[in-house]
Amino acid sequence: ALANLSRLKFFLNIQIITGRKIITTMNYMITFISFLSVIVVVVTMLLYTADGWRHKVGNNLGWTLPPKSSTYSTWASHRRFRINDILGDPENDHGVAASCKPSFSLALPRKVHSAVIQGS
């Protein structure tokens, strides 16, 4: 009976040591997986913010005079715009000019504040 008791103690000690090794190994694995997850999230965020989306304005309608005045507002309301996004039509080149409201209302071509003329 004494031999069985010492074998049991030896077995229990091995289990405790092995259990600690398993727990330590699991802690290292959890730490590594957490670190790897953070790296993946950071890289994904950097890639996502660095590159903008190209939006084809008006879908198939393009840059034309729409049949309804709300066409472009409706088109834009279904999209989420971010920094570095490009608005345009890949098949055609377009220019954009900014002017103040009175100049625009009076259609004064020389009162343009800034202009961007660039191909798609």
TrEMBL record:
Give the superkingdom in one word: Eukaryota
Task: Show the InterPro entries listed in the entry.
Answer: Cupredoxin
- Keywords attached to this entry: Membrane, Transmembrane, Transmembrane helix
Q: What is this protein called?
A: Cupredoxin
- List all membrane-crossing ranges: 28-48
